[in-house]
Amino acid sequence: MTTLASGTDTLTRDALTVLQPGFTGTTAPDWLLRRLGEGLASVGLFGRNIASPGQLAALTAQLRAERDDVLVAIDEEGGDVTRLEVRSGSSFPGNHALGAVDDVELTHQVAHELGRRLAACGVNLNWAPSADVNSDPRNPVIGVRSFGADTALAARHTAAYVTGLQSAGVAACTKHFPGHGDTAVDSHHALPRIDISADVLAERELSPFRAAVAAGTRAVMSAHILVPALDPDRPATLSHRILTGLLRGELGYDGLIVTDGMEMRAIAGTYGIERGSVLALAAGADAICVGGGLADDATVLRLRDALVGAVRAGELPQERLAEAADRVRALARWAGTTGRPAEDTQGTEVGLHAARRALTVTAAPALGGPGAFEPLSEPPYVAALTPVANIAVGDETPWGVAAELVHLLPGTVTGSFCAGDGPGNEAGENAGRAALQAAGPRRIVAVVRDEHRHPWMASALDTLLAARPDTIVVEMGVPQAAPRGALHLATHGAARVCGRAAAEVIAGITGW
Length: 512
Fold this sequence. Notes:
40% helix, six-stranded mixed β-sheet, 512 residues, alpha/beta, six-stranded parallel β-sheet
């Protein structure tokens, strides 16, 4: 164990221990190494910190040279939310694709292989899986990050993911407790309110979390959501009733409770990150996640001093802070004693295998069913109807099928079209007309993401299909809208491997 810097008192060390900050750059800055020496026990990584597996391994080694038991956390769900492959797209389909296949052994294998890759790079805590039941199809932030809208399905796959990930020596952090699925508001931007009864919540939202607890999840992440049936006054992250009464008491969970990012507007815009962090610890949280947006030493010092000040002012019991710090250290001990699994060459293709199995193919009935579709032999024009990405996914990760079709049908051309500023359906009509003009005589492949949530996107498809009924449609979000097009492919996610699976069908590389 690293010897902590002399002169750092127990209270200050504990305040640093419960923080999970981020930083910028692909090497650890001096301030971060200094705080590790003073008691900081966790570091959170994001896409900005990762250039390659070798670089990531060197970074985590640099951190452990300063503190050998440091928890290195990452937000690596696979699918649409990837940090390991932020610039290329993930080698693994996300939860919704795994739920579409509904093979718990496959989910276990995917999570194990993802965990093996994380462990090989020195990462030992993953802020995944999402156990949210995506019961509101308008949900702007969960969507394909969920295994689905069925409670039992979400529960069994959450458990399989937890056991698979942890069998690779990486702690799972099941999120977003008590369930972020039944909302049309993104907590990155505002505080969502979920108005459901306690009975519905117990039967639907909590079921996957019970399964995760039973599976031994080492961490649970709280949601920045207001659930009046549980606590009418405070969001879950700040609610003693929810974190201590429900999660600890009723569900019997004794592991680490981590907050979602405290700089998200649901907390920062209503309580502020300092006050929010104090209230979260008092409510029962053990680790404060911050660093997605605020990633500097000043933020760490602000939160450290806020916690120390709250203890000294009698607003936060020192015993509660010490208990939280002990849970962080306990998880670090578990991670330090769990060996890394051996290289598994058979597991390296499991992501593509899962993406292929998740694909749903529907041919236009008017054309006589699947036999009527002839795979493309000439390079098409790919029209990507591109929505604004939510913050969890980010806009730096490529998506679609064009990159994969280029390999299978060289000469494939692509263009991206968005809503723009047009009122009503005009935006979609404009996007559709622009895509038609850009495509020229080429066969069109229209790629959408959650068509059902974007009227402009549906309008653009109307325009395309009216003029070119032979257009192929690829839905890479939640396939809530009715299938249409000469061929409709639902990938259940926008990971790179999902694009590969769709491109194979379009080019006739695989049977369907």
